[in-house]
Fold:
Amino acid sequence: MTKRQFAWLYGGWLCCLIWGTVAAWAGEEAIAYEVLFKGLTEEQEYLQPILRAASLCHQEKNNLPGSRFILLRRARKDHAVLTGALQSRGYFAAQVSSDVDVTETPALVTLWIDSGPLYRLGQVHIEVLQAQVLPSALHAEQMEQELAEGFSLFATPEPRELELEPGGEAISRHILDAEERLLQAAKKQGFAFATLAKRHIVVDHDQQSVDVTLRIEIGPRVILGALTLQGNEGISSDYLYKRISWATPAAPTAPLLYHPQHIAEAQRALLATGLFNGVQLRIAPAADETGTHPVTAELSQRKHRSISSGLGYSTGTGARIAANWEHRNLFAAGELLQIKGQAALNQYRLESSLTKPDFLQLQQKLLLSAILDKEDTEAFHKDSFGVEGGLSFPLAPQIDLSYGLGYRLADEKDRTGSQQERLFGLISTPVKLIWDRRDNLLDPSHGWYMNLYGAGILDTLGTGVWFGKIGGQYRLYYPLMNSPKMVLAGRVSAGTLSGTGREAVPADERFFAGGSGSLRGYGFQMAGEVDRNKKPLGGRSMVEFSTESRLQVSESVGLVAFLDGGRSFVGNSPSLDESILLGAGGGVRYKTPIGPLRLDIGMPLHRRAGIDDAYQLYVSIGQAF
Structure:
């Protein structure tokens, strides 16, 4: 064939191909179809979601085929795909066929499932491919004793310990889970470099059984050696070493057998400093001259300084602006210095605090703070300056107890009652217990939070005022749905004062209810008794509760419906003569990198003439609670 003849032949074939494709595209419309799975028994209905998740026909339903041929090809591909899915569930004799009917509208794809019998596990074996211990020159005597006691041998788990016993269902997921348990068993015995080898599976169709052999290469047993820090420039190495119970910059004097928990403990301790974005611990594959395996901690530091700001608005208090600055490594040992400022229409607050970690003992913190505060509300006017020092330490994971001593000078004018102006010098002994199990501080979706506090307070400037103040708050977050995401949130708060009458207590130490983070729908501090001039008096006790239903309607936008209730009470315990006030409303949440932007509108359900407005508007960053 000449080149010219070949060109004509190739050109003609290409034209026919293009014409046929265009004709097929123009002559047939996309086919909408439904998928049915048939052949399963009633006991096998649990397989339906598994088959739907695996089926190409089901996954591609919205990608309409352009012809019957394409739909047929799609259905035939499902034969192998669904057979594999059934075999993964123990049906090793499964067969799949299909019918495609395009005379219906929509078309119908029927996938016929002949599952066959459910196979069972036959023999289960565990094969260890390697076991050895590198001798230690430094700890030769102890290693010799360990060898004599069989310390170097891998204690192979029994199949029942791996939850893979003969007679059980031959499900692929169970076999994979058993392999992971086998690997973890090796690591927990000190074989840090253990790896899984290729498993051996034998299917016996006559016996309808599956024999399984799991293989593991365990490598050397590892004794942890010196820990080297990398990436901690500007951060005290001594501070970091003290946080890890087993870590030393030199080889330990007593051998420490590798355990995954030791590595996880070190990672948690280093991340808990708040100084690192990432912590990676690597174990040297070979032992050094001491017979131990050196460990390297690769640290990725966060920036030590940060600044943040925020805006907010509520009908009761107007617009407010806040700015925060912090240094997380002030003296090179994780000291946290924070300076916070806040300004609103009638309130100015400047606060500085210093937290010294591991003060005197591990995990104990020294807390120092100073607050300058000016506030002018319907209830009182005050100018205040206070200092406080204390200690904080964990009682258990996620449970912190703190206590201390504080002193505050306060020049206050009560805008209710006698309108008197008084100067207080208040010494206090605050105690606080926090139990925090939330998954997120700004936008929690599950978990709970509890805060209990108490303080004895005494005036040192001659008024003779002394009183005790206790209270607490509990918050609960419960996910109702995952798609769309819906969370039910609840909050309960209560507090009481004892030791003196309401009028003698400094106005800003009384309990008030109402406002953005309290009882929405009522003005700031207005959910309680008021005087004849409609100014809030506050109380010696308080009860509040809130419920919210939070629905995430898109990736960025959420809707909220809420009901709040409570009030402040005249006496030091709630009284039935003072009715509970209720507020209800709704809001919108918009996700931002620093937390949800909140817009709420609340309305009082027990609106008091001349006291309560028809609604209150709140804008801020973060959920209401």
